Amino acid sequence: MTPRRAEVGIVYLGGLAQGLSLVTFPAVSAIFTDPKGYRLTSSEYGSLFVPMVVLAVAGSSLGARAARRGGLKWVFVAGLCFNLASMAILTLSQWFVGWHDVAYRLLLAATAALGAGFGTTLMALNTYVAGFFPQKSEVALPALHAFLGTGTALAPVLVVVFVGAAMWWLLPLAVTAAFLVLLLVSLTQPLTIASPVRTARVDGSALAQRQIPARLLVYVAAVFLYGICETVFGNWSTIYLKTEVRVPLYWAELALAAFWAMVTVGRIAVAIVSAWVDARWIYAMLPVFILAAFLGIPRVGGVAAANVVAFGFAGVACSAFFPLSISLAEQEYSRMAAAVSGGLVAAYMVGYGVGAFGVGPIRDAGHLALSTVYTDTSVLAAGMAVVAFVLAWPRRDPAHGTQLREGSDEDRAR
Q1: Is the pTM of this model over 0.85?
Q2: For the chain, which domains are there?
Q3: CA 275, CA 139: separation in Å to the nearest integer?
């Protein structure tokens, strides 16, 4: 079944909107923690992401089962509705800044809705792209995540524009409108892929019997570690640069924008380069660059432009690791595509939660500066490099020298 251009457009624009919504909260972190703003402590700011992670894991993990029962389209539509609700609640919360407890509860509700939206939407988007372009997933999936990255890069830039006009809440309001348009257009399209029911049924059976291949768990571990690393870069950069390095807010937001912009550029570059270079070599090298970024950022000092460059390099390092993890895992376990996508999104979100929430209590306790957090997280990056090195070599059929895929007779025997 060949997808129509409208369906492909909806999926990729959905990635763009999802990126905008995902980074809206970190992009306005300085406003959340500002004594003249929401007045959140670091622990309160970090705790905002707990309901987000819980519901994102639930949404991505249950997405395959929901797609089997109600259809993948309705999982996608539900994700759009959750995202729309999240941005609408965030917009509403700015009218209650003077009532700390009320505003804080509204923010928790907004991140909870964002988590449900992110988990279900990203699982559906990854599955759609794999279904639309089964022979070109190594290009199509990084392209999807490039759109996602474009949205994440736009969010901090727009915050700078709107903060200058004292109307930061126009950003979530605009994203609310974008999700509303996507929702209405999606309802008019079939949004179907080849044999989604069969794929979901196999997924559910395999998971129910706990027949999760050991190598797939290694992919889960890699994505979990990546989630922590990316979040330490993305969610805490603005606070780190503004409060510890003491650069102006403009430069702090610019550094965050550089991080997400270079994530996008890196994904586009990998999608192009992978036509000539084996994507597994790229996959093995990216964690080494992440390790270098963690060691380098604390040594940059207070030079604002240098920090922008450093976080831009971190963005390149992070760029294609997550989409390549999904692409490579789905290639190896093609009969479990929806479950693989959902499981890896869940692993990413658990890592996101550890990186987002874990830093807050440490910071409030005063035991560890954010510069030290960046240095110490390099240990996790080193672990990710080892795991990626293992995954860079696909399983081989000793009899024929070909790559083994899920569903082969030998693979099932194992």
Answers
A1: no
A2: 5-395 (1.20.1250.20)
A3: 8
